[in-house]
């Protein structure tokens, strides 16, 4: 899966390639893949999403963080070296050795911000 996905997406993709797997097996396998560090859980792309946990694969991928639009659910992956340096400094200051982290910044994407400004009208 080259994008964030829900277990339903994985099951449907497998079925499209001729592999039948129950949703229970997909969930069990994803749990093992999370433990192995091959996939990780991510915030659902839409705050109103009721399907539960979403995932992304991390194996052989560079570390990245996320910007998440709280209105439309758009997710932007980014890297910013200064953030990594600051996180290491904070961990050292508190005697921690980092083994990993996840950072998700929530806000409004440019499109939602622009449409919200149009809806709000002049001040």
List keywords for this structure.
17% strand; alpha+beta; 123 residues; single chain; Dna Ligase, domain 1; Arc Repressor Mutant, subunit A; 5 strands; two-stranded antiparallel ribbon; 3-stranded mixed beta sheet; 4 helices
Notes on the structure:
The chain is an alpha+beta fold. The chain has two domains: 1-61, Arc Repressor Mutant, subunit A; 62-123, Dna Ligase, domain 1 (2-Layer Sandwich), CATH 3.30.1490. The chain has helices spanning 7-16, 23-35, 81-93, 110-120, and strands at 39-42, 54-57, 65-69, 75-78, 104-107. The strands form two sheets. A three-stranded mixed beta sheet has the order 4-3-5, with no helix packed on it. Helix 1 packs across helix 2 (23-35). It is flat. The model has no long low-confidence stretch (mean pLDDT 82).
The end-to-end distance, rounded to whole angstroms, is 45 Å
Which structural category fits the helices and strands?
A: alpha+beta
- CATH homologous superfamily heading of the largest domain: Ferric-uptake regulator, C-terminal dimerisarion domain
| Oligomeric state | single chain
Rounded to the nearest angstrom, the radius of gyration is: 18 Å
User: What is the average of the pLDDT values?
Assistant: 82
Main pleated sheet: 3 strands, mixed
SSE series: HHEEEEHEH
Number of strands: 5
Percentage of residues in DSSP E strands: 15-25%
């Amino acid at each position: 899966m080259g994008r964030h996905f829900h277990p339903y997406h994985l099951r449907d993709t497998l079925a499209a390639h001729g592999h039948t797997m129950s949703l229970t097996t997909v969930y069990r396998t994803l749990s093992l893949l999370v433990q192995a560090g091959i996939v990780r859980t991510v915030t659902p792309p839409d705050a109103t999403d009721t399907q539960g946990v979403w995932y992304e694969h991390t194996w052989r991928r560079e570390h990245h963080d996320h910007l998440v639009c709280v209105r439309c659910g758009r997710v932007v992956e980014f890297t910013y070296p200064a953030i990594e340096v600051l996180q290491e400094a904070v961990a050292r200051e508190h005697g921690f050795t980092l083994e990993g982290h996840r950072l998700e910044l929530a806000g409004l994407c440019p499109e939602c911000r622009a449409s919200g400004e149009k809806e709000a009208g002049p001040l």
